[in-house]
Specification:
The chain is an all-beta fold and 195 residues long. 0% of the residues lie in helices and 49% in strands. The strands form 2 sheets. Strands 1, 2, 3, 5, 6, 7 and 9 form a 7-stranded mixed β-sheet that branches. The protein has a 4-stranded antiparallel β-sheet with strand order 4-8-11-10, with no helix packed on it. A hairpin with an 8-residue loop joins β10 and β11. It is globular, with a radius of gyration of 19 Å. The termini are far apart.
């Protein structure tokens, strides 16, 4: 089961909600045109194959499960020079088959920064989507009510101020392929603090 997505027929789609809590801006590099951040990445989806009746199991409503034991969305940062590095932690499996996985994640993204005007504000875009599943098999959405990064746990950076964040869901068709591909693009606008 862990190697196949939780669909019951060829017309089923797995739907996943994505939320990213920004904890810290770790590094901004004009030389390497990159942004490095520490985050918590939360993904929620449903796998009906894993559901159970709590009345048959001593009213247990949820359990913690190693992520290696279940199918998990292959959501990647498409515009990363080094990939996304996350800590393996268990996920929460609820009796209805819903899964929630909150992973401490280090994100390094490409970011276009004007080397000649480093004090200006600049916007970095981070594009997340499935690496292998098209939009007919896998859909990704923002967690209800959220736009941009969740800033509740953010620690200010001494060198850069966060001006704004936003996120947009895209459905794109590429010349190679007839099927749609879905992504969520986060935007973060930063400005160097004046010394």
């Amino acid at each position: 089961m862990k190697h196949t997505p939780p669909v019951f027929n060829s017309s089923s789609t797995v739907s996943m909600d994505l939320s990213i809590t920004l904890l810290q801006i770790e590094d901004v590099s004009t030389r390497f045109q990159s942004l490095k951040m520490q985050t918590w990445m939360m993904m929620t989806w449903k796998d009906g194959r894993l559901a159970w009746d709590p009345h048959e199991y001593d009213n247990i409503m949820n359990i913690r499960v190693p992520s290696s034991m279940v199918w998990e969305p292959d959501v990647m940062l498409w515009n990363s020079p080094t990939g996304v590095h996350f800590t393996r932690v268990p996920l929460v499996l609820y009796h209805d088959g819903s899964l929630t996985h909150v992973r401490p994640t280090s994100i390094k993204s490409r970011c276009s920064i004007d080397k000649h005007r480093p004090n200006d504000s600049f916007t970095c875009k981070l594009k997340f989507g499935s690496w292998t599943y098209d939009g007919n098999m896998f859909d990704i959405k923002m967690k209800a009510g959220e736009r941009g990064f969740d800033m509740a746990w953010f620690q200010q950076n001494p060198n850069y101020a966060v001006i704004s964040t936003n996120s947009t869901r895209h459905v794109e068709y590429y010349p190679c392929c007839p099927e749609p591909y879905v992504d969520i693009t986060f935007e973060i606008t930063l400005q160097r603090r004046q010394v």
